[in-house]
Amino acid sequence: MPIYPSEIADAIRKPKFCEPVRDPNAAGAEAKFDCGCFVKVEMRIDGERQTIREIGYRTNGCGYMIAAAESAGASLSGNSLLELQGEIVVPTAGRPGCTDAPIRAIRNALADHRSRLIEEFSGEKALICTCFGVSADTVEQYVASQSAQSVTDVSAALRVGSGCGSCRMLIQEIIDANG
Prior knowledge:
Blueprint: H1 6-13, E1 26-32, E2 37-46, E3 51-59, H2 63-76, H3 81-84, H4 96-120, E4 127-129, E5 134-135, H5 136-146, H6 151-158, H7 168-178
Antiparallel strand pairs: 1-2, 2-3, 4-5
Helix pairs in contact: 1-2, 2-4, 5-7
């Protein structure tokens, strides 16, 4: 009698993403203390296009955790962060705790990437968009030079306001002040 259902067994037989990422700029881990398993996810995200160029993981977890990490790698690789809109979905197959761990590790890696963007920022002006590390000065210069009339125009050009959206009101204030 097989240990795992066929879809899990197929995923762990020939893992494609179970390898380190060269020059990662996002890393996150998650552990399950009830069974002693962990999963660490690394990504290389293209800074210009904000696209996941490479994703890999390491784990000492069970087949369910490996299958979930494989599924996540397949669904995220090559995707734009904007396309994801914060949604990371991995099919659960029997053991939700084991399939949730890779999702939490991916979220931790994306939070790490965002922290790195913010840390790279240096200047005297405040950040308007922490998702993409865009300063108020950058938005003000763009609005003034391009006579931008809408948040959508500014977002299309600078990506500002196209992540979580919490800065869209600030962008509108800059547009209104420049008008």
